[in-house]
Amino acid sequence: MLRSLRLMDFRCFGSLDLEVPQGGAILTGDNAQGKTSILESICVLVRLHSPRTHRMPTLARLGTGGFGIAGDPWETDRQVRYSREGLVLKSNDEPCPSQTSYLADGGLVVWMGNEDLELVRGPGEGRRRYLDFLGAQLDPQYRRSWTRYRRALKAKNLLLKEGRTRAAEIASYEEILIENGTVLMESRARLVAELAPLAAEAQRSVSGRDEPLTLHYLPASGEDLRESLLQAREREARLRQAVVGPHRDELGLRLHGMPAADFA
To answer: What pLDDT does residue 5 have?
Structure first.
C-alpha cells in the first residue's frame, strides 16, 4: 500500500523520511515517541481526515504554522500541505483543485487505536468522531455536508454569543444547518444500521457468549431538524450557543439492553 512516507512539522516530527520494506513494517518504540502519529499521518495523507481530531492546526508541530505529508499510497504520489492559508493538495505532482478531486481516486483506511475503548466508555464526542471518520470515507456527500455544517454552526454560535437580536442572520445560517445537517443525519442512520449486525456478530465471536450487542443512532434533534431548531430558539438565545443538531448526536451501545458503558 505504501512504500515511502515523508513528514515535515507533523505532530512531534520536525522531519521524517521512511522507506517501507516490501514485506511491510512494524513500528516499535517507547511511549510518546510518535508511532501513533505516523499512522495518523497516513490517514491524513489518504483521507484528509484524522481519527484523533477534527482540527487541522493541532496536527502541526508546536511553534510552527503548518505541516507537510508526502507518500505513495497505492503507487500514487500524493502531497498534503497545511498552513494558515489552507490546504494545498497534489496527486502525481498535479495540483488538485478541491478535496473532492483529491479523494476521488484514493483508497479507504481502517483505524484501530488504544483510544477505541472510549467509543464505549467515553463521551459522545468520540463516537461522533468515529461516525464522521467512517461517513467521510463511505459517503461522497458526507465530507462536503460535514464541512458546511461546521462552518455554519461556528457562525451561528458567534452570533449567539454576541447576545444581541440577530434573528435574520441566525435564520440564514440555520437554513444551511438544516440542509447539510439532514444529509449527515440520514447518512449516520444508514451507517449505524449497516454497522449494527456486524458489531453484534463480532461481539458474539469475541465473547464466546450470547450477549446481544445493539447499536442505535440517536439524533439530538429527533427526526425533524427544522422543528427542533424552532423549538430551541429561546433556549439557545438564553444559553448563547446552539444546542440541537448533529453536533450533539449520540451512538447508543447496549449489552442485553443495558448501557454498554456501565457493563462492558
So the answer is: 97
Low-confidence ranges of the chain (pLDDT < 50): none
Counted domains in the chain = 2
For residue 152, tell me if it sits in a domain.
yes
Q: Which amino acid is at 151?
A: R
Q: What is the pLDDT of residue 177?
A: 98
In a domain, residue 109? The reply is no
- Three-class SS state of 12: coil
Separation of CA 82 from chain center:
17
* 26 membership: H or E segment, kind and range: none
* Other Cβ atoms within 10 Å of 86 Cβ, number: 10
Closest CA to 224 of 186, 172, 170: 186
Backbone angles phi, psi at 67, to 5 degrees: -155, 165
Domain end (from 103, 130, 157): 103
pTM: 0.79
pLDDT in the model for residue 56? 93
Same domain, 162 and 189: yes
| Sign, CA torsion 148/151/155/158 | positive
Cα distances from 240 to residues 43, 93, 162, 176, 247, in angstroms, run: 35, 46, 8, 19, 16
**Which residues, including other chains, have CB under 8 Å from residue 229's CB and lie 6 or more apart?**
174, 177, 178, 221, 244, 245
pLDDT at 264: 63
Distance (Å, whole) CA 92 – CA 229: 45
Residues 141 and 250 in one domain: yes
Report the distance separating Cα 157 and Cα 170, nearest Å. 9
